[in-house]
């Protein structure tokens, strides 16, 4: 897989740790970032994974940047591209020909709370449950078919940073367990629907408290 990340790279680290620990039969062929200062690049280098930074400022448009970025990604021949804390919208012209091969982890129970500041949105909405989702990337912002989710209760008096920390702790096993399914060939996108073991899912897979899918 190739991993795209813009920030500290904690989800990337969860992937690298799972591979190193023999819990994920996969390889990270390269890590790419739109920010040269991203800690994710340091994590990649520490693990011996090629790390690449490409600045959007050197391109005339988002489409031109994405074309260059994905040309570099494609040169590695990944089976899957994982957006793990990648904070840029990707041009539809890049996503469409790669449908079914790009996934993202998003900190909400999609379709609720798309975009940024999801924990703040959840608290302002007064929901009893929040969480994270892994979904296929489509031309719509956080709108692609959802593969799997992890649910996190919202506690009385919750503040944004506390809720964010609890969700992040569930993001890591959610992403790793979902990637285990991809590595085993059990997940596919067909006719814009998620298929699990050859059958269309009627609802996203749910990660239990013991980090297994129900």
TrEMBL record:
Q: Which PROSITE patterns match?
A: GART (PS00373)
Domain (Formyl transferase N-terminal): residue spans on this chain:
2-179
Q: Name one GO biological process term.
A: 'de novo' IMP biosynthetic process
Q: Please state what the protein is called.
A: Phosphoribosylglycinamide formyltransferase
- List, alphabetically, the GO terms of the cellular component aspect: cytosol
Q: Give the gene name.
A: purN
Residues annotated to bind N(1)-(5-phospho-beta-D-ribosyl)glycinamide: 9-11
Q: Which organism is it from?
A: Luteimonas wenzhouensis
Positions bound to (6R)-10-formyltetrahydrofolate: 62, 87-90, 104
Which PANTHER family does this entry report, sorted A to Z? PHOSPHORIBOSYLGLYCINAMIDE FORMYLTRANSFERASE (PTHR43369:SF2)
Name the InterPro entries for this protein.
Formyl_transf_N, Formyl_transf_N_sf, GART, GART_AS
Q: Which reaction does it catalyse?
A: N(1)-(5-phospho-beta-D-ribosyl)glycinamide + (6R)-10-formyltetrahydrofolate = N(2)-formyl-N(1)-(5-phospho-beta-D-ribosyl)glycinamide + (6S)-5,6,7,8-tetrahydrofolate + H(+)
């Amino acid at each position: 897989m190739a991993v795209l990340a813009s920030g500290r790279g904690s989800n990337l680290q969860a992937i690298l740790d799972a591979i190193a620990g023999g819990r994920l039969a996969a390889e990270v062929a390269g890590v790419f970032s739109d920010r040269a200062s991203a800690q994710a690049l340091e994590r990649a280098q520490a693990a011996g994974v090629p790390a690449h930074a490409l600045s959007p400022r050197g391109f005339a448009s988002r489409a031109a940047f994405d074309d260059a970025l994905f040309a570099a990604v494609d040169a590695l021949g990944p089976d899957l591209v994982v957006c793990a804390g990648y904070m840029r919208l990707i041009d539809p012209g890049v996503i469409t020909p790669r449908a079914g091969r790009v996934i993202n982890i998003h900190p909400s129970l999609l379709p609720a709370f798309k975009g940024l500041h999801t924990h703040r949105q959840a608290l302002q909405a007064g929901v009893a449950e929040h969480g994270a989702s892994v979904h296929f990337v489509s031309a719509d912002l956080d709108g692609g078919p959802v593969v799997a989710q992890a649910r996190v209760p919202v506690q009385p008096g919750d503040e944004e940073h506390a809720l964010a920390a609890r969700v992040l702790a569930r993001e890591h096993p959610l992403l790793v367990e979902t990637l285990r399914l991809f590595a085993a060939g059990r997940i596919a996108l067909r006719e814009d629907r998620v298929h699990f073991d050859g059958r269309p899912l009627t609802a996203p897979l749910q990660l239990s408290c013991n980090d297994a899918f129900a």
